[in-house]
């Protein structure tokens, strides 16, 4: 009889759900029993052999059912534990132990010996006399040349234009297939202090070479997540000619210091901020996030920000001493994936 | 007091800020020594070598063309000599018989009377080796013989007591398969002991062995490694192989009998500036532009022994001393290799007024 069959089928399902602890394999006999009795479920204690797991059930439907039941039970137990803990905390009141901090990869970071101690005199001397010293002593002011790899497509060209509005005193030039090693002496003779080359692959920008010019270090970055102005939601109007502030977050190691100084030397060094624009280079887990905002202080503590400007993410691939010479130059740091990326909690910047 | 403190440094490292660092691997400490008490860029160390007469004196060649004498016994700089003439930094230093041999980048090799009481003395002997010298090395078996080589400057071996012509002048290899001249860029030279042979490593990633005793002036053996210029080289104990490092921080051991690659060492992230093997134990100290001094075990098993972060861009360093007491220290280092090395204890050793003791946390071996 179809009806009885359906009912028993339904009853079988409910029977499965109601049995919380004992997971019994349902057989047709049980179905018939379920059809006959009214509310009491006979505990067909067909105990499992030890070492049985749900994944061994061959029938997909039954297996799925068992799994959902198990999952619900787990969730219930977890909720019960949470409630219990909460009650205990309330009961203790002030004497409750502090809440445990959840583990994240950032706070599980492997101790890095190269993290710079702020009182370290050697590093301070090193930084006071390195290639950026003349910028930090206000002897030179930055003049940037922005260019791309040869034959750039629309996105890259627009990114260059937007970057030149973000970075003051910068000029965009078309590459024309010239060799970087030939461009660099010409730039130096025209008093440029930095060279930015945006590399493009398959119509999207994917790399950035930043070379400090007189004979400074050259950093090569991988660029990803590039968003041009029109792709940014809820953005403000275009940036003005004011010199932006810079925020450099989380460049703690010695290598991070060098890279941070490279970024800082792109912008004119002027502590009197005019215009409420700020460029942020935020380093987290070796990825550097670039954002450009306009801020306004509504009160002492409240700020409103509008994102202007392009947005992209950089990852350092190599830092080379001297101007661009990838074949014969000496590298201060090279990213080696098989040696450096073995631990998920070790970062280098 | 001070003597013991300076003597227990196993590896000496020179930096670009002018500080000479002595690293004690047993206690994982680096001690800084400066001539003037403050680091100065003009004193950037460009060449280091042991003085003659045991390992008690270190000659430090600085960027301002002075050679400073550092005594390991006393733990301080004891004198200096200004060596004008020619242009560029020092590329080689040596000491023999009370005279000092210097070589600068523009190719002027000068022999000075080792008398630092006189204010300025003219060089006893001056040789012009050719421009663009990258290295001058003294033969440890024959202290009067020096070898020089550089960019477009072929390997030449000079006898300082003999004539003004080189004893051995190497010839370039044959033109390559496109019939183009193979460029020359000798970056580092080593003399092989117990024979007259020399090994050079080039900026075009080749390792070449020359034999002045054989009739051919071309290299006897040539091996290539990698794609980047090789910047430093050292001989292993046993002298059948050399370890070379390139500008990407890759270290490789190359067998000189067959020209084969025996294996690589990993760990460095920056250009290798200095390599030195222990004379008898299979330990290698390496330093580079990534500001870290590493001690590697070369065989059984190949791996990193110890890492130290002296925090200054580093320059060539030196062999660890050979005293018996320090041999025991080395032995204990090896024994400790299997288990984790103890963390640095913040000891307050003997302090000198002019010395700043820097204590760095020691990292354990991998």
SSE arrangement:
The complex is a heterodimer of chains A (349) and B (366).
Chain A: H1 2-18, H2 28-36, H3 60-92, H4 121-128, H5 133-136, E1 144-148, H6 154-166, E2 170-172, H7 180-189, E3 194-201, E4 204-212, E5 218-227, E6 245-249, H8 254-264, E7 277-284, E8 287-297, E9 303-321, E10 330-334, H9 337-340
Parallel strand pairs in A: 1-2, 1-3, 6-7
Antiparallel strand pairs in A: 3-4, 4-5, 5-9, 7-8, 8-9, 9-10
Chain B: H1 2-7, E1 11-15, E2 20-24, E3 29-33, E4 45-50, E5 57-62, E6 66-71, E7 76-82, E8 90-96, E9 99-104, E10 108-113, E11 125-128, E12 133-138, E13 145-150, E14 153-159, E15 168-169, E16 186-191, E17 198-202, E18 206-210, E19 221-224, E20 230-235, E21 241-246, E22 251-255, E23 261-265, E24 272-277, E25 283-288, E26 293-297, E27 303-308, E28 314-317, H2 324-335, E29 356-358
Antiparallel strand pairs in B: 1-2, 1-28, 2-3, 3-29, 4-5, 5-6, 6-7, 8-9, 9-10, 10-11, 12-13, 13-14, 14-15, 16-17, 17-18, 18-19, 20-21, 21-22, 22-23, 24-25, 25-26, 26-27
